[in-house]
Amino acid sequence: MFNLKSKIILITGGAGLLGSRMVQTIQKHGGIPIVLDNDQKKIDKLKKNLKKINHSLAFYKVDITKKNQVKNTINKIYKNFKKIDCLINNAGFNPKMSFKSNKFENFSLEQWNKEIQISLTGSLIVTQEVVKKMINQKNGNIINISSDLGIIAPNQYLYEKNNKKPVSYSVVKHGVIGFSKYLATYLAEYNIRSNTLCPGGISNNQPKKFLNKIRKLIPLNRMAKINDYDGIILYLCSDYSSYMTGSTIVCDGGRTSW
Fold it and tell me: What are 7-59's pLDDT values in tens digits?
């Protein structure tokens, strides 16, 4: 049903948990996913996990906070593939990075600046360079990945006392939605669309105690499975969504309905 044949689709954070699933889904339906990621180990792991590595897939190691790196990478991609149909802004802050505290009253400017830099500034830099190509094409499609926590505040009772959800996460995820709406209105005259997906959390070997807590907050009584977002990604990447722009799609098992 969703034919992505020959569509060139860039995915930032493409070697991460959700990003790698997007890569597989897009390739399976005829698209050409272009992975942008700064973690070589994750890139290598994705390469090993994919059964078919050929002309229908490409990987670029790039730090999206470095404008010259991004510019050079996007120019290479455009030279190699002659077009860019879609950009998925999926890169985010690595929660495993070591900081003293996520508690608001002790939250460091270092962590604040790092997360804003990666998740918002990085998306700005990549989108600026990609949009230059899309404007020349007079068409394009941008998908920004936010979160259910871009709609609601985190429930801090889910987390351990010294490991709260950081304030920067809420700011970034809400900011992505505003960024996406701005792009939708600014770029409409060039036939470039921009939409936001707000996924709920994905089940990924979290502690049983946490899973028991969070499922009580979700009407469907579970976190998402990794394949629960396949259909939405395919829809947003395909021409079936050609009249959708400036929209925010929430897929969270009903969590934000309460």
Answer: 999 999 999 999 999 999 999 999 999 999 999 999 999 998 886 655 578 99
SS3 readout for the chain: CCCCCCCEEEEECCCCHHHHHHHHHHHHCCCEEEEEECCHHHHHHHHHHCCCCCCCCEEEECCCCCHHHHHHHHHHHHHHHCCCCEEEECCCCCCCCCCCCCCHHHCCHHHHHHHHHHHHHHHHHHHHHHHHHHHHHCCEEEEEECCHHHCCCCCHHHCCCCCCCCHHHHHHHHHHHHHHHHHHHHHHHHCEEEEEEEECCECCCCCHHHHHHHHHHCCCCCCECHHHHHHHHHHHHCHHHCCCCCCEEEECCCHHHC
2 is a domain residue? no
**pTM for the full predicted model:** 0.95
The domain spanning residue 19 has which CATH number?
A: 3.40.50.720
Q: What percent of the chain has pLDDT over 90?
A: 86
Assigned token pair, 151:
């709609």
Give domain status of residue 3, yes or no.
no
Give the model confidence (pLDDT) of 82-100 as tens digits.
999 999 999 987 655 555 6
Percent share of the chain, pLDDT over 70: 95
**Rounded to whole angstroms, what are the CA distances from 188 to 48, 90, 128, 177, 237?**
39, 22, 15, 17, 17
Q: Which domain holds residue 148?
A: 8-257
Output the six-digit token pair for 251: 């897929």
